[in-house]
Amino acid sequence: MRKVFMVAMAVAALTFGGTVARADNLQDGAKAFQGGQYNRALALWRPLAVQGNPVAQNNLGIMYLDGKGVPQNMSEAVRYLSLSAAAGSSLGQNNLGGLYRDGKGVPRDYGRAMQWFNASASQGNSAGMYNMGLMYELGQGVKQDPFRAYMWYSLAADQGNMPNAAAHRNALWSRMTPAAQTQARQLSVNCKRANYKGCA
């Protein structure tokens, strides 16, 4: 099962920077969202999103995508996720890539999905890495490449918060020859050394 869409929770919210009030509103909104208090999360995040906070924009995009605290509205979901992605949020980039891959609210476009997933993965986002692995494994928007698929799954799994990544990595590994395993492992090492840049 694909896990594509992610709301920034407290830890990611605090990494945005800015004033303490902004960080508190992001964190309080995350707690409210996790507790199912969507109207409270909306009240805390909307002003920040309007002010250009990419984490809040991502979170509002997910709320509109899922219809939590707001009526489901694909146009608003795409708008907020696009703003977040363009501002450089790795969460927004990953989530916008998911919309393009799945054709939700936008025409299906695997090439654009790959661009956004790659932008997210290049920042070390484990969901972006996992999605890059899927794209390479399935040959969507890119030539099918089990070595690169293994690399991205492995990098995502190393972060410990994408359990499906390890299962996909292990399944690919079991189908590789020892020489292919060495090559795939080396790709992962090289990408990690490059701080995830230029690995696509």
User: What name does CATH use for the topology of the largest domain?
Assistant: Serine Threonine Protein Phosphatase 5, Tetratricopeptide repeat
- Quaternary assembly: single chain
Count of alpha/pi helices: 11
The whole-angstrom Rg is 17 Å
Shape: elongated
Distance between the termini: 23 Å
| Helix content range | 55-70%
Mean pLDDT across every amino acid position: 90
User: Low-confidence parts lasting 5 or more residues at pLDDT below 50?
Assistant: 1-5, 9-19
In CATH, what is the homologous superfamily of the largest domain? Tetratricopeptide repeat domain
Strand segment tally: 0
Largest sheet: none
CATH architectural arrangement of the largest domain: Alpha Horseshoe
User: What is the succession of H and E elements?
Assistant: HHHHHHHHHHH
Question: Can you describe this structure?
Answer:
This protein is mostly helical and 200 residues long. The chain has two domains: 1-108, Serine Threonine Protein Phosphatase 5, Tetratricopeptide repeat (Alpha Horseshoe); 132-200, no CATH class. Helices cover 69% and strands 0% of the residues. It has helices at 10-14, 20-34, 38-50, 54-66, 74-86, 90-102, 110-121, 126-138, 146-158, 163-174, 178-193. Helix 3 crosses helix 4 and helix 6 packs antiparallel against helix 7 (110-121). The longest helix has 16 residues, at 178-193. The chain is elongated. The model is unreliable at 1-5 and 9-19 (pLDDT under 50).
